[in-house]
């Protein structure tokens, strides 16, 4: 049974139990399955079938999830697109995955208009919402009169069938599409049930963006598999989120640390009653231990710490019983995953010794879309090499130490230095740039750029930032630009970024 059929099975077994609530609208299991089926029939009529790519440029909505599960029923592959990406980044992804269909929200009309000018693309477009200047058919219209019954089951589908391509930047700064299967998501859900005992009483508040793996793989699919209910809400006002948690009796929420920090500063925080909350989960960036302590001590809420990646889903989990005494640890590897720590000389690290985390198991992705060499490099020796450095203590608990590559995680967004450096170096007065992560209390890290300019000419910081407009996403732009005359280098001429990071020590 593939992921798409989870909603159908829920409709069969428990038709009247709640499935989803959004902006006052409610759908039970039977109603939501009917919406998914109508969407699946509409997509099939547009030529969507097994392994056809369907790109989605949308904010969180019921429609997003209906497309996700409809694609799953058809054996199609959904490609979520980050709505904050700049046009060149979107163009690259669309050209790379070559979708048959692109569904977009009306607020993305300008970006889609540009995508339509890309030569050679054969894409059908659907708009969700209303926009007077759009000639594209509305998603609501093409699904309305379709049958509410399930489409014909394709017997060739199995758990190895691709379900999703999630683009993540590589060490070269070029986004790569991580291909995840139905089996990956099934075992991801099993791990959540096994580690955190999710069941049909769980009510998940979905506030993290669905175009990130964290929301789909933590907020949604495990809860759907367990039989729980979803509440969709945008994170516009932290006080409203607190009110929603209380009124809806939310038992679980996944969010990035900056969201949890904002909630503690909201006017509603002092009176917040989280007695219905079973636990919160943070992802995308390390959760500061003092912030964990504040939730534990002031609101008696535990945090489910853990670690995962787009390519692997959840790798580790910290048991809720250890959440307080082991705060800061990412726990231990989940049940069906094997994890070892390798030193630079290729041996397994002893307790307390730092090395690279490498994993294998049923949640490890199928590979990078149309990039066999990158896949082979990541899966060297049959293990996925995370590029993250960690250590294991004498009791087996894992702690992250750093990253082998230049990945910067800013409020849950992955940023690789190379892509930012390449954008900065397009400026005519820039000779060379080196980008590192700068510690930030709210976001985990932000981008800092060390720049060497041509002939000593130094444009203003505002001018350089304006130059980056439209070239990279806003969250990738430097928060600090430091002019340098020379860079520290090793004997091979490579910039020593660890030396640059010392600039921020003690801040």
Description:
By secondary structure, this protein is α/β, with parallel strands linked by helices. It has 15 helices and 27 strands. Strands 2-1-11-10-12-13-14 form a 7-stranded mixed β-sheet. Strand 23 and strand 24 (413-416) form a beta hairpin. Helix 1 (4-13) runs antiparallel to helix 2. The protein starts with a helix and ends in a 6-residue tail after the last helix. The model has no long low-confidence stretch (mean pLDDT 92).
Short recap of the structure:
This protein is of the alpha/beta class and 507 residues long. It contains 15 helices and 27 strands.
Descriptive terms for the model:
single chain; 507 residues; alpha/beta; 7-stranded mixed beta sheet; 5-stranded parallel beta sheet
